[in-house]
Amino acid sequence: MPVPGQGVGRPRNSAIDAAILVAARELLAEVGYSQVTMDATAARAGTSKAAIYRRFTSKAELLFAAGVHGADPQPPADTGSLRGDLLALANRIRTDMSAPAAREVAPHVIAEISQSPELSERLRSVFVATEREEIDAILTRAVDRGELSTMPPVATVHRMLGGALFFTIMVIDEDLDDAELGRVVDVLAAGLSAN
Q1: Hey, what domains does the chain have and what are their CATH numbers?
Q2: Rg (CA), the chain
Q3: Alpha-carbon span 47 to 183, nearest angstrom
Q4: Interatomic CA distance for residues 162 and 164, integer angstroms
Q5: C-beta of residue 59 within 8 angstroms of C-beta of residue 36
Q6: What is the pTM of this model?
Q7: Is it the case that residue 72 has pLDDT exceeding 90?
Q8: What is the pLDDT of residues 93-148, one digit of tens each?
Q9: Which residues, in sequence order, are CB contacts of 120 under 8 Å at separation 6+?
Q10: Phi and psi (nearest 5°) for 128?
């Protein structure tokens, strides 16, 4: 599975990858989504526009990676319990989605997805796939530990956790404090354990 921002089979250069994402985040903060250009990003990153397009197919994908996902996802935390693992993941998602860059990028990318099946497919094949791999790892550990008797559908768990957090943070703009986040995870973990 490709790492977000990386095409299949393309060599990675972590220094260039990092420079591109830093430049994109800086420009996003300075001028806003609509004014960020690939030319300006390349100039600030000290690379070429072609180098950016080898990693990202569009400005939307670049800014989604820079503002929401990052280019080097870490393995999900192994806390020793299903609830703990889900809570660690939920905390990271909450932090990422609550950042000013994510709040700037998300509405624009959602609007562009509705107009571009290609962008929608690209985000699914790279970013959603990566998120589901993380959830798969968490659920597999829970099955291996005996906390779950069967493997739940990964896509369903992804929709339930990601959807709850996205709706709360991005749509209705409510605070999701630690207690409420814990309650969301408790409901999800209890439902998974009951099956």
Answers
A1: 14-57 (1.10.10.60), 73-194 (1.10.357.10)
A2: 18
A3: 45
A4: 6
A5: yes
A6: 0.82
A7: no
A8: 999 889 899 999 999 999 999 899 998 998 888 888 889 999 999 999 999 999 99
A9: 113
A10: -65, -40
**What residues contact 26, with CB distance under 8 A and at least 6 apart?**
44
Contacts 24+ apart (CB under 8 A), 11-16: 14/72, 16/45, 16/47, 16/51
Q: CB neighbours of 119 closer than 8 A, spacing ≥ 6?
A: 57, 58, 60, 61, 109, 112, 113
pLDDT digits (tens, 9 = 90+) for 15-31: 898 999 999 999 999 99
Q: What's the token pair of residue 167?
A: 């709706």
Q: Which of 94, 116, 91 is nearest to 170 (CA)?
A: 94
* Angle between the N-to-C axes of helices 14-31 and 38-45, in degrees from 0 to 180, rounded to the nearest 10: 120
Environment class of residue 151 by beta-carbon count within 10 Å: exposed (0-12), middle (13-18) or buried (19+)?
exposed
Cβ pair 45, 16 in contact under 8 A: yes
Which amino acid is present at 44?
R
Q: What is the average pLDDT across 167-176?
A: 90
CA 154 to chain centre: 16
> What's the CA gap between 161 and 118, in Å, rounded?
25
